[in-house]
Specification:
Layout (H helix, E strand, L loop, with lengths): L5 H13 L2 E4 L5 H13 L3 E4 L7 H4 L10 E3 L5 E3 L1 H14 L11 H28 L7 H21 L12 H16 L10 H11 L2 H4 L6
Parallel strand pairs: 1-2
Antiparallel strand pairs: 1-3, 3-4
Helix pairs in contact: 2-4, 2-7, 5-6, 5-7, 7-8
The structure holds glutathione.
């Protein structure tokens, strides 16, 4: 059975030619999800192409032969890769529309947000690596390596937990540090629930509850 029927292919052509943003990748990817939540937050409409880098390779090949998501196709047809660069583009777009960017263009807050995002990305990358290790045939899995990954993931979450002493990580307002952190934790809780010792992270758990209940996160469910 073809993974993309003709109607779908037609729809995609219209979208890439017709002036809308198009986001490729499943929302169970924390990197795709942070981009989608950001677009929701900024009110930038987009088409979501819900294709898996593993299960839908034939359908993805003509769109993105790198098999790496997220990929954002701009209304011009230009393709952007790497969530950090995509977010940078979205912040610029938001600023042009008079919306406060989730990461300011300059100043000490920018640095703080970027450094907390760096911690969230370490935690998230290590969690994704744990999942990839689990996907390997049983005899090729290396428990010592998984232990190291788990230690790094938890260390990064510990450092974020320590920093969170109010409703948000930086400046008493929602920033990309919060969205990236909650997207990473969302992935762990959804894909690797046994790796999320909730009781160890009360402040982060509160942040997750608050943000997951917000319209921007609710519009981006993990199973799409
Ligand atoms: N640094 C990249 C990481 C993206 C990433 O690792 N995406 C995963 C899905 S969670 C992926 O595409 N995996 C397929 C692969 O790496 O081959 C970003 O932030 O965009």
């Amino acid at each position: 059975m073809p993974l993309i029927d003709e109607g779908y292919r037609y729809k995609m052509t219209i979208l890439t030619e017709g002036g809308r943003h198009q986001l490729l990748g499943l929302y169970d990817s924390p990197f795709v999800r942070r981009v989608a939540v950001t677009m929701q937050h900024y009110g930038i409409p987009f088409e979501h192409l819900s294709l898996s880098v593993f299960r839908h390779m034939d359908a993805m090949r003509p769109l993105n032969p790198l098999f790496k998501v997220p990929m954002l196709t701009l209304p011009s047809g230009e393709k952007l890769y790497e969530s950090a660069y995509i977010l940078d583009y979205l912040d610029e777009l938001a600023a042009e529309r008079g919306i406060t960017a989730l990461t300011p263009r300059s100043g000490p807050e920018r640095r703080q947000i970027q450094q907390l995002m760096a911690l969230a990305i370490v935690a998230t990358e290590k969690a994704v690596a744990i999942e990839y290790e689990r996907k390997r045939p049983g005899e090729l899995q290396w428990s010592e390596w998984t232990k190291r990954l788990r230690g790094q993931m938890r260390q990064a979450f510990d450092m974020l937990e320590e920093r969170l002493d109010s409703d948000f990580l930086v400046g008493g307002r929602l920033t990309q540090a919060d969205i990236t952190t909650v997207s990473g934790i969302g992935f762990v809780r959804y894909v690797l629930p046994h790796e999320w010792p909730e009781g160890d992270y009360p402040a982060l758990a509160g942040l997750v509850d608050r943000l997951e209940a917000s319209p921007a996160f609710k519009a981006v469910p993990l199973d799409e």
